[in-house]
């Protein structure tokens, strides 16, 4: 059964969430209310995504604001324990034990979550590793696996126990295209029953996978909505030409002899259909 916040109906809710590092406000009054489905968190380097996700994974405490996860309060020790049992977290730089096998590593995470049934644990660990294409690597020492394989071991550890809330910091990092596609199916399955919140720099990943997108910039959520609406936000403001354009706020090369521009198109410009990248660049520019 899915537990939701009794007031908002959300699996994840924050109000006024704030985290400071000395004079820097990394997360600045963030209000969120997320239900079932896959939510993509986009934002430039240093926007505060990792800091926000670490707070939501109960690894870091905020300086101000409220958090409710699965309807529970992480500041209450008993409720925090219950949350940790029921969420999955993939940190940005996962720490794995190189001397363990993938099966031992995922099993160990299940033990930390106090799953006491050994047969259940092993079955769950095997299923998670197989879903991530590691069925033939379960008994190999982690230190002898490739970077992408190690990332998939960490993902399998996050998936153990079918968490109702999955918080994933750049889950597709290091995965080859085939494994990225496989990961999409795994995450889509997780979202049937719960919330998957993932940070990424890959807008194609967001288009393919997410029902909702949040854009973070300078600690704030500067845009929230459906991916197609973010793409549409730049409609009429994107054009292509072979040269630089004075009215463009941003221009970039899209192929030999072709540049794409964002801004106010000049008379007669070849205006093109806007994409998620265009919308993202536009809202982060406006937020500055
Ligand atoms: N432990 C820390 N001490 C001081 N400053 C920190 C610490 N962790 C993060 N920061 C700062 O907080 C801001 C937000 O960092 P954060 O890692 O959350 O951003 P991000 O959006 O995840 O970036 P990226 O896309 O590069 O991973 C940055 O300016 C960063 O330098």
TrEMBL record:
It comes from the Bacteria. SUPFAM superfamilies: P-loop containing nucleoside triphosphate hydrolases (SSF52540). PROSITE patterns: ABC_TRANSPORTER_1, ABC_TRANSPORTER_2. SMART domains: AAA. GO terms for molecular function: ATP binding. InterPro entries: AAA+_ATPase, ABC_transporter-like_ATP-bd, ABC_transporter-like_CS, P-loop_NTPase. Keywords: ATP-binding, Nucleotide-binding, Transport. Pfam families: ABC_tran. Residues 12-243 form the ABC transporter domain. Belongs to the ABC transporter superfamily. This is ABC transporter ATP-binding protein. It comes from Nocardioides astragali.
